[in-house]
Write a structure and sequence with these properties.
This protein has 10 helices and 12 strands. The chain is of the alpha/beta class. The chain has a 9-stranded mixed β-sheet. The protein starts with a helix and ends in a 10-residue tail after the last helix.
């Protein structure tokens, strides 16, 4: 069943040799094929966050949404590869439970296959949707991401990977009200990463209370959001000034 389901999803090879899928539901690839699936996860999400939290010994990470699992798995990969002394607790919602079930058959990149622990993690997540050892705890939730976020206590997360399908097709995970809930569940030292640099998305984050920064880890810019202003990473974007200069610019709101 798993392999057949993956084939129906239109299996696609990206520029760095790693594989992704095409979602027929959202009419988008899970990753930018011109950046590469593993490179996108590492450079747009994992490395900026772990660099920012380089002195932390434990992190609670919210991975929106799990999808094929690259962000979560690349985080574990990077920690093991760099031998970082840190404990990770990763929580990730995913609407498509059948996709998770099929991932034990997915052809992940050689970087993942060469690490036995990662191979075991993939099997455990695909079959049990949970994995835990002394360094990593990964918990998947099949269902509504917005409902899931509300279940966490205030100030819980240090890292948020905001990596849902785009606001054009998955608006409910980019609205001001959605980011209100993310803000409440986030610690004062949180860093939120996003591939989206769209002004409406940044305004949604800003109106929820986040400070907005721009960062170019590779060829494309990304958005970083924080609860507090900082000088460690990225270029500060004054969203108040941006809105003054562009009166037509609006945040995204729930319908």
């Amino acid at each position: 069943m798993g392999q057949r389901f993956i084939n129906l999803q239109n299996f696609v090879k990206t520029i760095d040799g790693s594989n992704t899928l095409y979602s027929k539901k959202y009419n988008q690839h899970y990753h930018n094929i011109d950046d590469g699936a593993i490179n996108e996860s590492l450079n747009k999400h994992v490395i900026p966050c772990l660099d920012f939290h380089k002195n932390s010994k434990e992190l609670n990470i919210l991975d929106i949404c799990f999808g094929i699992g690259y962000n979560t798995l690349s985080t574990v990969y990077y920690v093991l590869k760099e031998n970082l002394d840190i404990k990770l607790n990763i929580y990730s919602p995913e609407l498509d439970g059948e996709l998770i079930d099929s991932l034990k058959d997915f052809d992940y990149p050689k970087e993942f296959k060469e690490i036995e622990k990662l191979t075991n993690i993939i099997k455990e997540l695909s079959t049990k949707k949970y994995y835990e050892d002394e360094r990593f705890k990964i918990s998947l939730y099949v269902g509504d991401a917005r409902k899931y976020i509300k279940s966490f206590e205030k100030d819980f997360f240090n890292v948020v990977y905001q990596d849902a399908f785009s606001s054009e097709v998955n608006m409910e995970l980019w609205t001001k009200e959605y980011f209100d809930d993310v803000y409440k569940a986030s610690n004062e030292n949180v860093v939120m990463t996003s591939y989206s640099v769209a002004t409406p998305v940044r305004l949604s984050m800003h109106e929820a209370g986040f400070e907005i920064y721009e960062h170019r880890p590779v060829k494309r810019k990304i958005t970083l959001a924080f609860k507090q202003k900082q000088e460690q990473i990225g270029k500060y974007i004054d969203m108040e000034l941006k809105q003054q200069r562009n009166k037509e610019a609006k945040a995204i709101y729930d319908l």
